[in-house]
Amino acid sequence: MVIWAAVGLVLGSVAALADIAAPAVSVRALACLAAAAYGLCYGLLELSGRAWPPPPGRRWQVPQELVIATGDRRRVLIWGAILGPGWLTRNPYAGFGLLPLLCLSAGDIAGAVVLAALIGAAHGCGRALALLRDARSAPSEPFALLLMSVRWRTTDGFALLLVAGTALAVGGHLLRSL
Amino acid sequence: MIALDRGPVRLVAAATAVLAGLAVGWPADGGFGVLAVLAVLLAGGNGYEKAYSP
After folding, report:
1. Is residue B1 part of a domain?
2. Could you tell me the sign of the dihedral formed by the alpha carbons of A84, A50, A44, A25, in that order?
3. What is the mean pLDDT of residues A150-162?
4. How many domains are there within chain A?
5. Is B37 a member of any domain?
6. Which pLDDT score is estimated for A38?
7. From the CA of B8, how many Å to the nearest CA of chain A?
8. Left (φ > 0), alpha (ψ -120 to 50) or beta: where does B13 sit?
9. Which of A38, A84, A85, A98 could be stapled to A124 by a disulfide with Cβ–Cβ 3.0 to 4.6 Å?
10. Cα distance from B46 to chain A (closest Cα, Å)?
11. Bigger pLDDT: A38 or A1?
């Protein structure tokens, strides 16, 4: 949440500075349209089942020994700083890349910080819920895991298209009101 | 149950998702609230589904 709030502060500051430098250009509208374009492209890609181009992001994964054979304090640090925020580790779903664009479309610093903090809290809670679910059930077989991943990719594609439609409508309104 | 793995059905479902997004976003009249709520839901879902990444 703190890391995401910091990202929101940076993105909100960029939007505010761009608004000062070029008042005729609406950063909010541009960010909404960029989010719509991203959502449409990657939403259709995820629904089509194509793997290329991959969603933007890193490929690194936290080594298991860093999480399993370590003390509580270090484990909390890894969860709070790496796994919860989701910036440093591999994420095969394109939905994550849309989130910074949506923060930018808040248009002001306070809005971007609040939204980014809420996004960070939601992402971290989602990861924690998935961990609790995994802890209660037996580990899935590799093929079942792969099948579930394909289904989640489809779900992510639909979510991206839904958000893209909304961003298109909001961006269109903002452009008309310029 | 609708077979979403069939190409034409998936295409119609994709178009419906975009239209639903437009229908949700249009009444907002440029307001950011709806988009913010969707962003938070997307973030929560993304965090959850990431557990299924092979």
Report:
1. no
2. positive
3. 92
4. 1
5. yes
6. 96
7. 11
8. alpha
9. A84
10. 6
11. A38
Please, what is the average pLDDT of chain A? 85
For the ranges A21-25, A46-50, A80-84, A122-126, the lowest mean pLDDT is seen at A80-84
pLDDT value at residue B54 = 55
- In sequence order, what are the residues at sequence separation of 6 or more whose Cβ sits closer than 8 angstroms to the Cβ of residue B9? B2, B3
Nearest C-alpha in B relative to A113: B36
**Do B24 and A166 lie within an 8 Å CB cutoff?**
yes
The residue of chain B with its CA nearest to that of A108 is B32
- Mean pLDDT over B24-49 rounds to 90
Inter-chain residue contact A170 with B25, CB threshold 8 Å:
yes
Is B2 among the domain residues? no
Residue A24, domain extent? 2-176
Domain of residue B16, residue span: 7-52
CA distance B27 to B13: 22
Is B42 contained in some domain? Answer: yes
Q: Can you tell me the distance from the alpha carbon of A20 to that of A32, in angstroms, rounded to the nearest whole number? A: 19
